C-alpha cells in the first residue's frame, strides 16, 4: 500500500465549476498535509497546507482534512483554464518524512 | 515561502561523465531533499541531504552514483556520476523546515533538466 494515494485522472471539469481532488494516506501519525500544483515542465508549487481537522480556505481554494478517515481533499471553486495542471497531495509524518502522491491531472475546459 | 535557486537549469552531457547540481536557499532550513522526476511521472526521492553528515539515501539510490554534500544550512550539491542515458531526467532540490518561521512546509527549486547522450 502506498503512503499517499490519489486518482491519476484526468479529471475534466467545465470552466466555472467546482473541481474536487481527493487523497488518502496510510500513516495515522501524519502531522501536516499539503497540496501542490505542478504545471507541465515546471516544478511543484505549494498552494495549500492544512494541519488540523476541518476546512481551510484561501481564495478559490479550500482544503479539507479528516484525520479519522485519513482523507484530504482540495476544492477549487470557479475553476479556470489556468487551473489545468497536475495536483500533488503530500503528507509529513511525525518522523519528518514527506510522502507525495502520484498526482491528479486536472483539465478545465473553456 | 523560500527562494531556491538551482544551477545549472539544464545541461546536455555525454555518457560516462559527471554533473554536479547546486542548490541554494535564501534562508536557513532544517531539511534539504533531492528528487528526480521523469516527464509526466511522479516525484522520486533520491536522498535527504544532512548538514554535517552523510546523506540518507532511498532504496535504489547509492552514494557512489549520487554523492551529495551539504556544508551548511543553505546550500547542497548533488552529483550524478558516470552518467548513462537512463539518468536523463529533471532533478529537483527541495527544502523544508525554515528555522526563522518554525514551519514544515516544503518548497521546490526550479529544477535541472539533464539530458545524457
H-E order of chain B: EEEEEEEEEEE
Radius of gyration of chain A: 13 Å
Tell me the Rg of chain B in angstroms: 14 Å
What structural class do helix, strand and pairing data of chain A support? mainly beta
Residue ranges of chain B: pLDDT <50 for 5 or more in a row? none
Strand count, sense and barrel status of the largest sheet of chain A are: 6 strands, mixed
| Multimerization state | heterodimer
Description:
The complex is a heterodimer of chains A (110) and B (117). Chain A has strands at 4-5, 11-14, 19-25, 32-38, 45-50, 54-58, 61-66, 71-76, 85-92, 98-100, 104-109. The mean pLDDT of chain A is 94. The radius of gyration of chain A is 13 Å and the shape is globular. In chain A, strand 7 (61-66) and strand 8 (71-76) form a beta hairpin. In chain A, the strands form two sheets. In chain A, strands 2, 4, 5, 9, 10 and 11 form a six-stranded mixed β-sheet that branches. With 110 residues, chain A is an all-beta fold. In chain B, a hairpin with a 2-residue loop joins strand 7 (68-72) and strand 8. Chain B is an all-beta fold and 117 residues long. Chain B is built from no helices and eleven strands. Classes of the chains: A mainly beta (110), B mainly beta (117).
